Amino acid sequence: MTITKALIAAAGRGTRFLPVVKQYPKELVPILSKPNIQYLVEEAIAAGLTDICIVQRPGEKNIEKYFTPDPELEKYLSDNNKLQYLESLKDIWSKAKLSFIDQDPSLPYGNASPALSALDFIGSDPFVYMFGDDLTVEDNVGSYLSDLIKLFQDKSADIVSAVQQVPIEEIHLYSSIQFDPSDPQRMLKVVEKVPKEEAPSNFTQLGRFVVSPKMLEVLKVLPTGQGNELWWTDGVNKLAQTGLAYGLESPQNAWMTTGDPLRWLKANIRYALMDNSIKDNLKEYLKSLNL
């Protein structure tokens, strides 16, 4: 079955970025010259997804405004020979349909609630679920997500998760996965934020998932977990125990989270070092600091 839908969760408060996100969502905090969330939209499009829905905070319209054409701005840029600055957005508008919905305020806080807010968008179709503050850094944008989709289709899976190894000392910050010894890609159990002594492995899930609509039925009856939040990981764990769940390791540590200022800064540096127009100057600057 062809998968065309992507759902991006962007409804969090981003409190670790206050006070700047008092004015706009953390997903609009820039990585170099583009907001964080634009990289996700471009990744989805590059993987062949053409119907993209962004779940935002109730009453928050800045993400929607950012992705909406602005004829007045375009005229100004055209009149001043600066229209090239909007090329990346115009490319998005030509290749995908974007829609925006508010997260249902009656739902509990948690990274699974955006999916329940988008039932009408998802319908009975498989879809890609993306966490709004996770990046996939790769030379060929969308290639890893394409591989996740292919594995989902090849295995007739209920869910395929992007996974990556992290230092065992950090596993308490993330989910931890137990794999099937007889099938190294099949996930048997996923637990959220447990001490390293209780972690089944140092593999964690990233913010990319290819999902059967079965997940929605799981989430509808899923109790809240740690911190009284509705955890996506708890839903994945349920599918792993009752159906077919697989994990595909990211190539070359492609995953970066931007959920706090330090990791956001690291992502900026990594993208800058991939940009031929500025990487040499950045290297010289960093060298000059005698770090």
Rg of Cα set: 19 Å
Distance between the termini: 52 Å
As residue ranges, the low-confidence spans are none
Q: How would a textbook summarize the main sheet?
A: 7 strands, mixed
Shape: globular
Judged by helices, strands and strand pairing, the structural class is alpha/beta
- Domain unit count: 1
The count of helical stretches stands at: 11
| Strand line-up across the major sheet | 5-4-1-6-11-8-12
Structure summary, number of beta strands: 13
Pattern of helices and strands:
EEEHEHHHEHHEEHEEEEHHEEHH
| Helical fraction | 25-40%
- The fold-level CATH name is Spore Coat Polysaccharide Biosynthesis Protein SpsA, Chain A
CATH superfamily: Spore Coat Polysaccharide Biosynthesis Protein SpsA, Chain A
Please, could you describe this protein's structure?
By secondary structure, the protein is α/β, with parallel strands linked by helices. It has a single domain, classed as Alpha-Beta Complex (Spore Coat Polysaccharide Biosynthesis Protein SpsA, Chain A), CATH 3.90.550. Helices cover 33% and strands 24% of the residues. The chain is built from eleven helices and 13 strands. The strands form four sheets. A seven-stranded mixed sheet has the order 5-4-1-6-11-8-12. It has a two-stranded antiparallel ribbon with strand order 2-3. Helix 8 packs across helix 9. The longest helix has 13 residues. The protein is globular, with a radius of gyration of 19 Å.
